[in-house]
Amino acid sequence: MGDRTLEIDRVSKRFGKVTALDSVTFDVRPGELFGFVGSNGAGKTTTMRIVLGVLAADSGEVRFDGAAVTHETRTRIGYLPEERGLYPKMKVLDQLVYLAQLHGFSANEAHRGAESWIERLGLAERRGDEVQKLSLGNQQRVQLAAALVHEPDVLVLDEPFSGLDPIAVDVMSDVLREKAATGVPVVFSSHQLDLVERLCDRVGIIRSGQIVACDSVSGLTAGAASRITVLAPDAPAGWAAHLPGVRVLSENGDGTLVELAPDIDDQTVLAAALATGPVREFTRHHPSLTELFRSAVTGEAAS
């Protein structure tokens, strides 16, 4: 088998006069958890539908394992759509067995796979229930089982964590990590940026149909302005106000919070603080993914 990378290469899509995707390019590597984030309407679902072949791109190409994605490749993708697509009156086990058989599993293999995921996702007591009678969280678990039951080579998940309770979030996170550990590329969209930050190897941020950032969380934060809390008890008010490239954000009994321009060495701030007397605290803060996302989407500095 080749390198099993999923590549989205300069994919564009228009709906009438609206450009939904404008030369969207990123890749999801084998064994990687890739978070795909953006505001509503930014183009996440459209991109995923094009990967799946539900929509055709106007231009550009989707490749897996070095070759253009075909119908045969798509049967190897596990997909969890944002609008959940289960048969409401079908029982949980029957549904999963049916879906596995659709992907070419024998009846025995399909049953084995379905039972295994039912157990793994905590649905054992619900296997004979109709999907429409399940809670939304359990419907979500069945939907994940449906994406996994045919042992896919790629996972494409649209908002897999929405509507899940904290325990189900943990189960879902563990399953995604396990799949990635077997070399499967996993891409998922989510508005829960704390989860994306915790889980993902890399993150792509899409705004108005264009990728505006794509890197590891640490890579994305590296270029962001640094913030430092300095506690220098003897420092006079405004001691940091005139330092070049330094912006004072707040000053109180807990210390002075400053923001440094990217090219400013924090040691100049430390030296200025030490010149006033002892320094009790000197703490650097890295912006969270939520702050980065806000700055990437609005064009404002991370805050």
TrEMBL record:
Residues 6-233 form the ABC transporter domain. One of its GO terms (molecular function) is ATP binding. Keywords: ATP-binding, Nucleotide-binding, Transport. InterPro entries: AAA+_ATPase (IPR003593), ABC_transporter-like_ATP-bd (IPR003439), ABC_transporter-like_CS (IPR017871), DrrA1/2-like_C (IPR025302), P-loop_NTPase (IPR027417). Belongs to the ABC transporter superfamily. This is ATP-binding cassette domain-containing protein.
